[in-house]
């Protein structure tokens, strides 16, 4: 309780002047505080209403943090800024999900011929279907087993255009993901595909798949996660939002893992807001860019 509240509650018994003197307050300050009571009540009511809206958005997707919730509220017609949303989320104990990566899936092949690094840690693209990154991540399954996900992500929009799930980490895992991307885009000719130097990406089978698709291979340095940071960040986000960030340790089976990943990727591409896209989903970002290009 503030001292002004105490004065208001006890003024009938002791008087404002005496209470202010005892508490070291000015009477003018007290009356100014009292005059602002209606405005404070209105702000408190607005904060409560906004917090309820934040809870609804967060409940739909517990991974949502302040930036995406702010974007969602603005789209719904609430003129809010991110600092206010951060404050209300902090006061309500609402936060997005966090996850630390634990399992290593990259094993370099010392005998494989490396490809040059064509990105140089520049994970941007001026147009779609020109620069891609990919990686492999593990999907824990009940019983101490794993299956594995290989991805192909467009750096222009952060859209996942190809992926493959298998119970092994052989080269066909990454070949299948690249082929899925080729089918989705129609053609990958002239594009760059960047990865780490794992044995799967350095394999002859993957090199041949890239040649068939007209894709130039690019690889980061051995042991440097920063050289493939965009792909690793995507994998961490997927794991955070589908499994471990929700307090789970594994899926009940391979089929359950496949379904969960498929569902999340569909939402990621079409609905999940991305900061690199101005808080637009990858598909919406590409669609808007295409519309602007046609209009020009």
């Amino acid at each position: 309780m503030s001292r002004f509240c105490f004065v208001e509650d006890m003024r009938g018994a002791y008087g404002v002047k005496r209470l202010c003197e005892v508490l070291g307050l000015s009477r003018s300050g007290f009356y100014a505080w009292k005059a602002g009571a209606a405005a404070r009540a209105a702000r408190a009511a607005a904060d409560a209403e906004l917090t309820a809206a934040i809870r609804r958005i967060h409940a739909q997707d517990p991974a949502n943090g302040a930036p995406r919730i702010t974007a969602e509220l603005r789209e719904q017609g609430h003129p809010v800024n991110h600092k206010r949303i951060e404050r209300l989320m902090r006061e309500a104990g609402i936060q997005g999900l966090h996850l630390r990566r634990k399992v290593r899936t990259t094993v370099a092949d010392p005998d494989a011929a490396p490809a040059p690094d064509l990105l140089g840690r520049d994970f941007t693209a001026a147009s779609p279907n020109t620069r891609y990154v990919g990686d492999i991540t593990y999907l824990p399954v009940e019983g101490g087993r794993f299956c594995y996900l290989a991805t192909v992500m467009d750096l222009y929009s952060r859209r996942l255009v190809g992926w493959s799930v298998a119970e092994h980490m052989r080269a066909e895992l990454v070949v299948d993901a690249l082929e899925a991307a080729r089918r989705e885009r129609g053609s990958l000719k002239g594009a760059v595909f960047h990865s780490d130097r794992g044995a799967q990406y350095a394999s002859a089978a993957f090199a041949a798949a890239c040649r068939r698709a007209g894709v130039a291979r690019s690889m980061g340095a051995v042991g440097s996660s920063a050289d493939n940071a965009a792909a690793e960040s995507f994998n961490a986000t997927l794991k955070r939002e589908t499994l471990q960030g929700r307090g789970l340790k594994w899926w009940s089976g391979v089929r359950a893992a496949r379904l969960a990943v498929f569902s999340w990727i569909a939402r990621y591409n079409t609905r999940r807001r991305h900061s690199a896209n101005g808080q637009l989903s990858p598909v919406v970002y590409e669609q808007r860019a295409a519309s602007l290009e046609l209009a020009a």
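Residues 131-295 form a domain with the Nucleotidyltransferase; domain 5 fold (CATH 3.30.420.10). The first helix runs from residue 3 to 14.
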